[in-house]
Fold this sequence. Notes:
The strands form four sheets. An eight-stranded parallel β-barrel has the order 1-2-3-4-5-7-11-12, surrounded by five helices. It has a two-stranded parallel sheet with strand order 6-8. It is 39% helix and 12% strand. The protein is α/β, with parallel strands linked by helices. α13 (389-407) links the parallel β11 and β12.
Amino acid sequence: MKLQENFLWGGGSAACQCEGAIYEGGKGLNIMDVATSGSRIRLREITETIEEGKYYPSVKAIDFYHNYKEDIRLLAELGLKSFRMSIDWARIYPTGYEAEPNREGLQFYQNVFDELHKYHIEPLVTICHLEMPLEISRQGAWTNPHTIEMYEKYCRTLFTEYKGKVKYWLTFNEINHSVFYDNDDCMVYSYMASGLKLNAVDNPEQALAASCYSVLKASAKAVIMGHQIDPENKIGCVLAFVPLYSATNCPEDSLAVIHDYDRDLFLLDVLCHGYFPKYKINEYEKKGIHIQVTEEDNALFQKGTVDFYGMNYYSSGMSAAENRGYANGFFHGYRNPSLKTNAWGWEDDPVGLRYALNYVDRRYHKPIIITENGLGCADEFINGTVIDDYRIQYFREHIEQLIKAVHEDGVTCWGYYTWAPIDLVSASTGEMSKRYGFVYVDLDDEGNGTNKRYKKKSFDWYKHVIETNGEEL
Length: 473
Ligand code: BG6
């Protein structure tokens, strides 16, 4: 069973996880540049600025900034139809507050797009993938009303500058990371999505709600602007979708599924349906959180709905009205005893992808692009390659479910982007050793190594999948 002829077989990346060269080209610091490396058991530390004696993986990353030609040549050899990448906001507006953009930063991305087009690879650009300029974060991030204006200015620059070169855009990556605030782990995730250091904020729950609200407004404004500047633009937004299962057949647990979905999906209600849902307003009122949904904002949400939904899918979760002795699982659900877990504690659930696609299709009636799906694991590099049959199996099982969702369930899906075609720095832990790529990058967790690229076994496998448009897995 094949997918549509123009299906976007892709791979994704983010500037802060691959570019490096943070002191070059007039770039300012972004919020991820000051995140130290961590591990599964040691949280990344977020410092005020780059401090001596600490290792910051974004400083060097995999040096895509200097290697982009070689990397894109490899992506072309892999046969990618599309490459998801982000623009580092602080490369274009170093503090966020400048009146004029940094031409050198603009030129860098111009060069990258030209290189992609040389190989007929369609760029899919995330406008903000965790890369808010540090200065904006210092000024209160999205809780500062001026941040929306700074983001609008940045978007206007991108839509104008890259008109005709970029058609597919994502306003934000995973804005639902900022809806949690209740433990240390969340601090890192919330920071990545909101730019807020929660331990320095008086009322984290209020601050995050306000922050999410501003992000939603900013996204709607970007969608409207992007369509005005170029009606050809297709603009989406990314949310990590975590399908939830009821832990037991207790009715209370099924109800918990719905309430747990509310936690993230109110964002999709705004982005896709164009209204701020009543259930969320009720919840805020009960918790004493104050969010003013004005008529003007509702009109904005209505006008600024996305053209497609960008789904990041890694794992599922389980909901229960009370703990019942379950271990904590991925993204604040409980661990599902019928699923296997990888070394970083993420459960492997291919069927969950089909469930997610169906759920979103039924509820939102928007085309979906799977903007991320992948397996992070420690690869063994032997004789110049990695025999990563486990990665092939992971992708095979997930793509099978994607094809079933399209062919058997009638889901509209425009594309599938693996995370990430080339090894890069892990966002949650800052490690290199949590590897996702079809291409191995010879660097360790402290940035030691030759930084050379090597094809893994999965490289030829994915190439063949693309060549046969998903017919041969
Ligand atoms: C997503 C992010 O949450 O997951 C990516 O959008 C990230 O930036 C990916 O890299 C995988 O997570 P991690 O923490 O293993 O890099």
